[in-house]
Amino acid sequence: MEGTVVNLEEGAGPGASLDFNDVDGSCDRRGAMAALDVFNAHLASRPLTAAELTLFLASMASFNRHTIGGIAILAGRLSDEILPLLPTKGHEIGAYVLDAAIDEYGLRESVTHVELARSFAAYLGISAPEVEARSNACASAVALGDALHTWYRQEPVAFALGVHAASEATSVKEFMAWHDVFLKFPQYRFSRDTPQFEYLRAHFVHEPDHIHHTKTCVSRYLDVLPGHGALLREGAERYLDLYQEMFYELDTLIFK
Ligand SMILES: [Fe+2]
Ligand SMILES: [Fe+2]
Fold it and tell me: Could you report the per-residue pLDDT of 193-232, keeping only the tens digit for each?
């Protein structure tokens, strides 16, 4: 994807410039995307058993538990930080994050993404209580989910925006792969038109827009607050560290 190069002010940190693709790039550099790629390759090699599906879906639920509220809160915090500096245009920057929250809250074209995920799981024979149980999730998914709760709400806005940007960068790659994997094996009984497949179909359609909006958001945010680049990158890296652990753990528990 093409990157928006954002020049940071002199002394703003090592490198003196930040390309949004550094957030994508840091996926590779820190191994998070490699861990996801390994997991996805194994996921495409055979259908999961019911116990493995429970572990996978419960882990994704624990990981994402606080993201929906978190990104809505980030959109508001972002607007509050920018508005004093850009009174007439500040809302536009928070709106890029709000746009992703609108999908999550089911305000555009589907029910909430939590409902989509639970109905997807139910079709696979995994009940909502089984998906909700933290005890069914891997430990690092629980840890990442808990960290996200704090990061979106209590860390500085730039840090939280870095977390969000990295999360969009990884989620587009998750859903592109999972969309194909769950259509591939007849044991899953999905077709593109299966109503319960909407969980993957909606993300397959909308995640590319999210990453595009996030790139624009980060670029415009750093135009206003160029000194916040290092904090933004720190947020992205903290997220990617735990994300890598989570997919390494899931891959080990399911495929090793
Ligand atoms: Fe979602
Ligand atoms: Fe997204």
Answer: 999 999 999 999 999 989 999 999 999 999 999 999 999 9
Number of domains in the chain: 1
pTM of the model as a whole: 0.89
Ligand nearest to the CA of 64: 1
Range of the domain at 106: 48-255
Is residue 20 domain-resident? no
Pairing mode, if any, of strands 5-7 and 17-19? antiparallel
CATH code, domain with 192: 1.20.910.10
Distance 217 CA to ligand 2 centre (A): 13
> What's the CA gap between 15 and 202, in Å, rounded?
37
What separation in Å is there between the alpha carbon of 49 and the centre of ligand 1?
24
233 assigned to some structural domain = yes
Please give the angle made by the CA atoms of 195, 133 and 130, to the nearest 5 degrees: 45
Q: Which residues surround ligand 1, an ion (CB under 5 A)?
A: 113
